[in-house]
């Protein structure tokens, strides 16, 4: 296998967003496109030379081709060992776990998350570093700068690894180990949760419906819920990963998992309904006739986690991204722990987790996880809920209602305006930013602005600064409005408007979310003028 150094020209668009580089498949199929990006990583993160590298993806179209490319380049760039999931599959949290347990220098996770897959769909790559977390902002910036100058990449010619055959193979002087994608992860889950108790819960006739949405979590759900916990096979659906995700949109929310929502509101609904996304890091939690918003799920898990085996020592602290509702703040206060507020993007939790300052963290974008990995973890969240249900012998609704009575309720929604011209989205942000200083003290209906600012973050561990992380308008404890630009879209700009309203009076806890938030929607339009500036009468998606 001759080593080749191939001349190439840089692509100027390889700046990673909130979670890696995401583009249309056709973009990744351009000559040298993927190679240039990977070579930037090999050149900049020199720890890979002589180290181990984990590779796996969510199984979408182009996954296997990209993996062969990555393996050939790893061999040519001096990586000593590649650990790759069988069939090219690894969920994002399972990849993070493997990077940690194998003390790998890094990992390539090939995914565009919940974005649709197939020839006309999206592809993506995330680079995770030693320790299992996503590349930091600083590293991402250096990769981007390097990718704009790159003139050549290194690869080994004629490489083909049989991704179906478990065990060792060699590529040049590099070892390639093909591993079962579930084994290590399943072992970890059994250390964290009380499998006997959950098994018993199922035996007593309780039920689960988990929708893997034809993405990567199918094999994980089969092993954990069916094989190990004894749930009937009918507990999991869409459990075979497909290259086009069955033509679906594996984004577990009220829109794209509508069928699950409908099931949970129907006669004979199971006790727990749940879904995960393309790469297995997101989760949606439903009980009979009730949806648990991600911010609530985080708060409720925070209140119960210490009852589960892996967390008996209690939680060190908790963190949420800035736009995530402040429900968890109330639990943290009651339990006497610190609650950190970070920018959107899982990478911002990594330092807090590494420093042992937090045990649990979560985001409004259907992400929840703990310090067991450095990514959000969909299947973990479902197991955590199963364990809480089994341990408390309460229903999802009972847990939620007790929680709201104790801590109050945060009504919450996110309004997305997709595929806007970049200039229009920027105009909304600039217009609002220019009025922030005038807002404090102003009254809008029942709400008075107490603070209005641009969210800037100083990492409490390493002191690094992240600026420009969204605009927030706070009405004391009563409500918040947040506006920010998404960093994960692949078409035009996506503007997100987040609405949060807090109620803690017994008579105000059972409202419908859309009705509870209606007055705030009006306030938001007065303040942020999204409809006025974009000309859109309604958001593209409400979750
Ligand atoms: C990614 C990130 C998350 C982030 C989400 C939405 O999730 O990992 O941290 O909250 O995108 O980001 P944005 O609002 O910038 O679009 P995933 O599941 O897509 O990898």
Descriptive keywords:
alpha/beta, 25% strand, 543 residues, six-stranded antiparallel sheet, globular, single chain, binds 1,6-di-O-phosphono-alpha-D-glucopyranose, 17 helices
Fold topology:
Layout: E1 3-7, E2 21-24, H1 25-28, H2 33-44, E3 52-57, H3 63-76, E4 81-89, H4 92-101, E5 106-110, E6 122-129, H5 137-147, E7 152-156, E8 167-171, E9 174-179, H6 183-192, H7 195-203, E10 208-211, H8 218-228, E11 236-237, H9 258-264, E12 272-276, E13 283-287, E14 290-292, H10 294-304, E15 318-321, H11 327-335, E16 339-342, H12 347-354, E17 360-363, E18 367-370, H13 378-392, H14 396-407, E19 409-420, H15 422-435, E20 443-444, E21 447-448, E22 451-454, E23 457-458, E24 465-466, E25 471-475, E26 479-485, E27 493-503, H16 513-528, H17 530-534, E28 541-542
Parallel strand pairs: 3-4, 3-5, 4-9, 10-11, 10-12, 15-16, 15-17
Antiparallel strand pairs: 1-7, 2-6, 5-6, 8-9, 12-13, 13-14, 17-18, 19-27, 19-28, 20-21, 22-25, 23-24, 25-26, 26-27
Helix pairs in contact: 2-3, 2-5, 7-13, 10-11
1,6-di-O-phosphono-alpha-D-glucopyranose (G16) is lined by residues 18-19, 113-114, 277, 281-282, 344-346, 363, 365, 367, 486-488, 496.
């Amino acid at each position: 296998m001759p080593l080749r150094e191939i001349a190439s020209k840089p692509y100027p668009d390889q700046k990673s967003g909130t979670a890696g580089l995401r583009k249309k498949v056709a973009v990744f199929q351009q000559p040298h496109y993927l190679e240039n990006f990977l070579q930037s990583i090999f050149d900049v993160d020199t720890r890979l030379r002589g180290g181990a590298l984990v590779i796996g993806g969510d199984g979408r179209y182009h996954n296997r081709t990209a993996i062969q490319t990555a393996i050939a380049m790893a061999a040519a760039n001096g990586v000593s060992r590649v650990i790759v999931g069988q069939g090219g599959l690894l969920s994002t949290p399972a990849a993070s776990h493997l990077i940690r347990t194998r003390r790998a220098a890094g990992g390539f996770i090939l995914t565009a998350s919940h974005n649709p897959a197939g020839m006309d769909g999206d592809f993506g790559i995330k680079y995770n570093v030693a320790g299992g977390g996503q590349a930091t902002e600083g590293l991402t910036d250096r990769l981007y700068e390097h990718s704009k100058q790159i003139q050549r990449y290194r690869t080994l010619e004629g490489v083909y690894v049989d991704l179906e055959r478990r065990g060792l193979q060699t590529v040049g002087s590099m070892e390639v180990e093909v591993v079962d994608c579930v084994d290590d992860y399943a072992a970890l889950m059994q250390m964290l949760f009380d499998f006997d108790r959950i098994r018993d819960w199922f035996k007593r006739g309780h039920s689960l419906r988990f929708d893997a949405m034809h993405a990567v979590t199918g094999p994980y759900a089969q092993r954990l819920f069916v094989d190990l916990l004894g749930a009937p096979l009918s507990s999991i659906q869409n459990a075979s990963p497909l290259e086009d995700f069955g033509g679906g949109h594996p984004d577990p929310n009220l829109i794209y998992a509508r069928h699950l929502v409908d099931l949970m509101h129907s006669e004979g609904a199971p006790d727990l309904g749940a879904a995960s996304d393309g790469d297995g890091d997101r989760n949606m939690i439903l009980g009979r006739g009730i949806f648990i918003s991600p911010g609530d799920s985080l708060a409720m898990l925070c209140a119960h986690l210490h009852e589960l085996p892996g967390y008996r020592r209690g939680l060190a602290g908790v963190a949420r991204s800035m736009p995530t509702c402040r429900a968890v703040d109330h639990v943290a206060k009651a339990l006497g722990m610190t609650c950190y507020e970070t920018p959107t993007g899982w990478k911002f939790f990594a330092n807090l987790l590494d420093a042992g300052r937090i045990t649990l963290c979560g985001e409004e974008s259907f992400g929840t996880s703990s310090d067991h990995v450095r990514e959000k973890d969909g299947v973990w969240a479902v197991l955590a809920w199963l364990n809480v249900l089994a341990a408390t012998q309460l229903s999802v609704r009972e847990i939620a209602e007790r929680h709201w009575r104790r801590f109050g309720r945060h009504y919450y929604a996110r309004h997305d305006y997709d595929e806007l011209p970049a200039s229009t989205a920027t105009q909304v942000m600039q217009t609002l930013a220019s009025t922030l200083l005038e807002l404090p003290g102003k009254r809008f209906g029942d709400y008075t602005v107490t603070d209005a600012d641009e969210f800037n973050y100083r990492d409490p561990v390493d002191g690094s600064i992240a600026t420009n992380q969204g605009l927030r308008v706070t009405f004391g404890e009563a409500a918040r409005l947040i506006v920010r630009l998404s960093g994960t879209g692949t078409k035009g700009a996506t503007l997100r408007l987040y609405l949060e309203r807090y109620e803690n009076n017994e008579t105000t806890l059972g409202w419908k979310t859309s009705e509870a938030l209606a007055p705030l929607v009006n306030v938001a339009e007065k303040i942020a003028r999204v409809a006025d500036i974009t000309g859109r009468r309604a958001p593209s998606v409400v979750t």
